Amino acid sequence: MTGETAAARWRLAVDAEQCIGSAACAGACARFRMTAGGRAEPVAEVVDAEEAVRDAAECCPVEAITVTDADTGAPVAP
Fold this sequence. Notes:
The chain is of the alpha+beta class. It contains three helices and six strands. Helix content is 24%, strand content 29%. 21% of the residues are buried.
């Protein structure tokens, strides 16, 4: 991981209407958890950039997770 990536901050969002509750994201990364209603949500809205977050977003079977650069809004995943 480069110094530039290590300093990056990412904004996480889960579309609750699209989420099917597979829990793949929560299983892949501790930055996500399941709600009592069976849907995923981020533990925090903005987190340090880490590959596990990108992996969690990319493993969502319905692409309900979006990860964007917290400073620029540029898409990171999926």
